[in-house]
Each structure stands twice: as structure tokens, then as C-alpha cells.
Amino acid sequence: MASTVVVMTNHAIHAEGLTKRFGETLALDGVDLSVPHGTVLGVLGPNGAGKTTAVRILATLLQPDAGSATVAGHDVLREPDAVRRAIGLTGQYAAVDEQLTGRENLVLVGRLLDLTRAAAARRAEELLEQFGLTEAADRRTRTYSGGMRRRLDLAASLVGRPEVIYLDEPTTGLDPSKREDMWDVVRELTLQGTTVLLTTQYLEEADALADAISVFDRGRVIAHGTPDELKAIVGGRTLRVRPADPVDLADVTALLARVVGREPEVLKGHASVPVEDSAALAAVVAGLDARGIDVTELALELPDLDEVFFTLTGRNESHEMENVR
Amino acid sequence: MSNTLAPRPVPGTVDADRVTWWPWLRHALVLSGRSVTKMMRHPEQFFDVTLQPALFLVIFVYVLGGAISGNTHDYLQFVLPGIMIQTVLFSTVSIGVNLSTDIKEGVFDRFRSLPIPRSAPLVGATIAECLRYGITIVVSLAMGVLMGFRTSTSPVSVLLGMLMVLAFAWCLCWVSIWLGMIVREAGSVQGLGFLALFPLTFGSSMFASADTMPGWLQTWVKINPVTHLTDAVRGLLTGGPVAEDATIAALTSAVILAVFAPLAVRAYRRKA
Questions:
Q1: Residues of B in contact with A100 (CB under 8 A)
Q2: Among residues A191, A196, A199, which one has the least CA distance to residue A164?
């Protein structure tokens, strides 16, 4: 069996022509995906683009109407149990039992993965430690904060040390500060060689975590590439500076114009200008420093999903849910 | 098909960390452990199965007993198996209601993404339910004994009668699960469940002998499997013929199980 696995899988996830219809709605319209071992694929798209449907098919929770997929070398339709052994799934909402404690949740999953009581308890302890939940371990998860629940949910999907992990919008609804925590966890996973499929509505998140990004729209992949390639398509970043004292705004604007060579846009106490690379940031920081200007905000921003979509589709309504044909 | 594959062990574990016996039953038992833990944290879930049989016995025996049998003691001897069965059957409704709400929680997505049989979460829930049914049966009998009920058979026979009620309820609870899977609202599951149970329980020989009823009703009462269950349990507790009624009751419950358990599992899988 080992030899077939090697032959079939230089990709941890490989899907071709996935199609799924719900009544009148074509949720997936011929999606191809490939994720090499140990890499992170970011699936970027608005609500209703088909991201979750694709994940549910790859996690054997749904069957496609057409198309095929292998995960960790196993066909999702013919060998669902083998796929389930190889994957971990973390959904948009935390899939934990609210009446049970954090520890009980993890032990339950371990027992269902055929660990003995002792081994399941050991694994739970490790994960609680790793996710900073040791203190809350014996409290019912109903009392957990949103961030703690997400962490426990992720921990539960790691009990079996899966080769492939699906993270379906892992940070949607989380505070920006909690978002960074989650990113660190994902980075740690990839360091251990886990393959990750991450869906998100934020280009920033895909850019921070993914080796490659597939952009979904209306059940199709409309763009695929590395984050840099994608950013080259949708345009560069925006440098934004907000001086602590509004009096300095004119100076800031002049500085930005000189460094970047383009006229900044001035709006509500801040100045922003499109930049090609991050080199401009260093020059601006040096210039601000030399002039002794204090700032409250200095940011290099990626275009948001709306702008990405506008560039890729020419439509201005990425968040609009439409029935496809 | 996929069962022929050697299971991939959890990496980083050694053989001593793994259990391999009867995965199907073991997974169901692990999940029933989850349900029991949850029940223990909500003791109010036991109110209906403890108070209801006690209350019904008092009402039926002391309010109606004299009128029906001439004296309360004779009626208690007659009605106790009926009350026991009625309260157990009514408590089968709750599993459908509970699963219908439970399944909307994300934790069922977790179960579906694990390499366990699709039916394990349902079977696990039914095993835990047996605890509630067992409590109802024991409480009915204990309350009856306190009120003066006396068995006139051997302890083995009494135990057999109690087990028979338990087994029948376990089979019937699959109907409740199936309803819970196909009906959209948990509230409607309860309504439908009770609606179906009224003709099954009251339209039987539980509370009065069939001879006293009009002909059309007698026809139904004689078909009703609950009548056969009641008569069999009556025989096992207070003496009388058992074999024929017990056979019919066992066969019907097996048929109910064979029809509704697969339907329930299929509906559950579709809900994914």
C-alpha cells in the first residue's frame, strides 16, 4: 500500500471538477484544487462562494454530484474512513460539546480515535497545555470565551495528529488580537509538516499564512497563485499615516509624496498612498523620525476582498449572494 | 469496503495505547458515556422518569381504581404493569426531541468527520436512554410495592418482565429518533410523538380489560402490540399465560427496530 500512496500523492489534497448542486443553486461548478504536502492553501472568497461546500466534500461530510478528490492518497468517495483518519476539521463555529469540559471534549475524541483511556487522557493534557487551556480544562466549555472555544475546537481536530487539516474560516468573528493568536497556531502546525487548507474572507489572512491562494467566486476558482502573484494582479498595498497632531498632516503628506513619488490622498486626519513594495515604509519611518513627527497610525494595508473581487471580476458586489444561473 | 483497510493508528502512539476490540460497539459505548455524563449534569432530566410513574400510579389507583375494580388494591394489581409501560413509552419521545436539537450543535459535525460508524452517535444515545427507561421501570415497581402491589411469581420472572419493557422501549425509541431527524422543529417532534402514543397506550388493555369495550375498539386493542406487551408483563409479574403475548410483543418490537433504525440512520446521514 505504501508504494501506491507515494505514487498517488505528491499532493496531500487533489480535487478535480468538483460539482455540487443544492436545489436551484450550483454551489460548486467544476472546482480543481491541489495542495502539495506540508503547504498551506488559502481559499479566499465571499460568503456563498462555495468554500465551505468544498471543505465539506473534502472532509467526506458531503458527496459531490460530479468530480473526484483524493486526500492523503485516499479517495473521498471510495475510502471515506481512511480519509477521516487522515484529516482534522475545524469549522466556522466551534464543534465542541458545551455541556462537557474542555478536557472531556478532547478525551472523547481520543477515545473515538481508538486511544485507550490513559493515552486519550495524556493526549488531551498535551493539547490543553499547547493551546493554553490547562487552567480552564475542567470547566464546561459553555463558560469559555469565543477565542477559547475556537482553540479547543482546533485542539480537538488535532487529537489524531492528522496529516491534513481543514480550517474553515478559523478567525471569522474573532477579535483582531485573537486572530493573531490563531495565526501563530497555524504557523506552528505548518512547521510540523501538516498540510493545511484554510478558507477565509480576508486577503490579509491568506497572505499571512498561505503558500498559495485560490480565489473562489460563485462556485468556481477564478484565480490561483502565490500571494505575491495575486497581489501583483490586484494591485499593491496602501501606506497609511496618521500624525498624532493634525497640524503635522501637511508635512506628512509632503513626505509621502516625495518618498513614493505620487500624490497621497488626504482624508479624515490621515494620508494614504499606494506603494509597490515595503521599502517605502522604511523611508517614511526615517523621514518622520528626522522631522520629529509623532504618529498614531502607520500601516501598510492590503486591498480588501471587495477590491480583489472588483479587480478579478469587474463586479462590485463580492458580498452579494446571487443564485448562479 | 473501507473496513478492509488496515486502520491508520494515531501517529506518536504505541500499540499499548490503542484498543481494537469491536469498534462499532465500543464507539457507541464511548458516545453513550457522553450522553450519561450530560444527563447527570442535568438531574431535572430525571424528573419525568421518576415523578411521572409515581404520580400516575396514585392518580389511576386512588382516583379511578375504586370505580373500575370495586377496590383500589385489585386495580393496583391490574394496572401496575400498564402504568410502568405507559410512562416508559412516553419517555421515548424525549430522545427524538433531544437529538433534533443536539444535531444542530457543531459537535455532530465533529462526529461525522471522525472514522467511526455513522450510526454510532445514534446508537450511543439510545444506550444512554436505557438508563432513563430503567429508572422509570424500577420507580414504578417500587412505588407500586409501597402502595401494596405484590408480585406472585419468581424474582427471575419479574426481572424478565422488566427487561421486556426495556427492550420494547429501546426498539420504539428509534421511531422517535426517526421523527426527530425528519421533522424540522423539535417542538413538533414532541407533539407528533405524543399523538402517536395515545392510541398505542390508552387503546390497549393497560387500564381496562378489552371485554368492556365496544367491538370496533376491541379489534384495535387486539391488534395493538402494546396490548400484547402489557398482557405478557402482567403474566410475568402477577401470573397467568405469557408465551403467546410475549412472542407477539417481541416480534413486533423486532419489526419496529428493523424498519425504523435503518430509516433513522439514513435520515441522520442525510442531515449532514
A1: 34, 37-38
A2: A196
Q: Which of A87, A100, A116 sits opposite B34 (nearest CB)?
A: A100
In a domain, B13, yes or no: no
C-alpha distance from residue B38 to each of A148, A157, B265 (Å)? 21, 22, 22
Average pLDDT over residues B32-48: 87
**Does B3 reside within a domain?**
no
- CA pair distance A149, A96, nearest whole angstrom: 8
Supply the ipTM of this predicted assembly: 0.83
Q: Which are the contacts of B115, defined by CB distance < 8 A and separation ≥ 6? A: A81, A82, A84, A85, A113, B7
d(CA B120, CA A82) in angstroms, rounded, equals: 17
The candidate with the shortest Cα–Cα distance to B95, out of B186, B164, B198, is: B186
A202-258 residue pLDDT tens:
888 888 899 999 999 999 999 898 888 887 777 667 888 899 888 888 888 998 888
Chain B nearest-CA distance from A66, in A, is 18
A81 chain-B contacts, CB cut-off 8 A: 2-3, 5, 115
Of A153, A184, A181, A178, the C-alpha closest to A166 is A153
pLDDT bucket at A153, cuts 50 / 70 / 90: very high
Nearest to A56 by CA among B11, B271, B264, B28: B271
On average, the pLDDT of chain A sits at 86
What is the tally of structural domains in chain B? 1
In contact, A97 and B107? CB cutoff 8 Å: yes
Sketch out chain A's domains with CATH numbers. Answer: 2-225 (3.40.50.300), 237-301 (3.30.70)
d(CA A64, CA A49): 16
